[in-house]
Amino acid sequence: MAKLFGTVNAVPNGPARWNVAPTQDVLTVRFNPKPRQRSLDLLRWGLIPHWAKDASMGNKLVNARAEGIADKPAFRDAIRRRRCLIPADAFYEWRPGAEPKAPKQPYAIQMADGRPFAIAGLWENWKDPEGHWLRTCTIITTAANELVARLHDRMPVILAPADYGRWLGDEPAEPGDVLGLLRPYPTDLMTAYPVSREVSNVRNEGPQLLEPIGR
User: Fold this and answer.
1) Tell me, what DSSP letter sits at residue 185?
2) Structure confidence at residue 163 (pLDDT)
3) In whole angstroms, what is the distance from residue 66 CA to residue 178 CA?
4) Taking burial as the number of CB atoms within 10 A of a residue's CB, which of 32, 41, 94, 201 is the most buried?
């Protein structure tokens, strides 16, 4: 990941994950304007705005809708100054069963070429009442493309590598250009396949969760 995103800091000691859940730490790529370097860090998933009174607000801000994001109090400062990338190999969505009480079928959604990708995110610094700092992040979502729409009406905003610099801030970009990046990723560059229902339990982990079933 450090090579892929051009980060220069010491690589954080984070475990490999196949079933990341909110409130857990996720890898993020951020840009530090001084001394103009990218860093790879572990931040907690669930954004806590700097003005929040307690950490519980982060449980409600796991995702941020792209529509109107620049005007929402929880995100409007971060969208200007604290944008990040969240690397991933895949994300999961669930298709409803054919019958009303039938269990949902999870699907893994990836790039068609199997390469890692980057989700657009925002991050924040928050200080707890004891004076300890906590860094948190959220994933930005947009309307689903044709592929994901078969499973859900929303999807994460996935950024093309050519747009990483503008999003992070290490390349100049007008506010309108940044917001223009928050769009569905092309359907023909992605694939989806069914995986085990074990992924529906956040306590389950391991590479077997990403293995296709029914092929």
Assistant:
1) P
2) 96
3) 11
4) 41
Convert the pLDDT of each residue in 41-97 to its tens digit: 999 999 999 999 999 999 999 999 999 999 999 999 999 999 999 999 999 999 987
CA distances from 121 to 22, 167, 197, 214 (A): 14, 9, 27, 33
Closest to 182 (Cα-Cα) out of 197, 162, 163, 200:
163
Q: Which helix (H) or strand (E) is 117 found in, with range?
A: strand 117-127
Strands (E), 54-116: 63-65, 83-88, 91-95, 105-111
- Percentage helix, strand, coil for the chain under 3-state DSSP, each rounded to 5: 20, 35, 45
User: Does the structure show a pLDDT above 60 at 192?
Assistant: yes
The domain made up of 2-91+111-185 has a fold known as: hypothetical protein yedk fold (3.90.1680)
**Does pTM surpass 0.90?**
yes
CA distance 92 to 120: 16
Q: What is the pLDDT of residues 29-41, one digit of tens each?
A: 999 988 889 999 9
pLDDT of residue 215: 57
CB 139 within 8 A of CB 64: yes
Please spell the DSSP secondary structure of 20-51, one letter per residue.
Answer: --TTSEEEEEEEETTTTEEEEEEEEES---TT
CB 74 within 8 A of CB 61: yes
Helix ranges (DSSP H) in the chain? 2-5, 76-81, 164-168, 175-179
Give the C-alpha distances (Å, rounded to integers) separating 170 from 9, 33, 137, 162.
16, 7, 19, 12
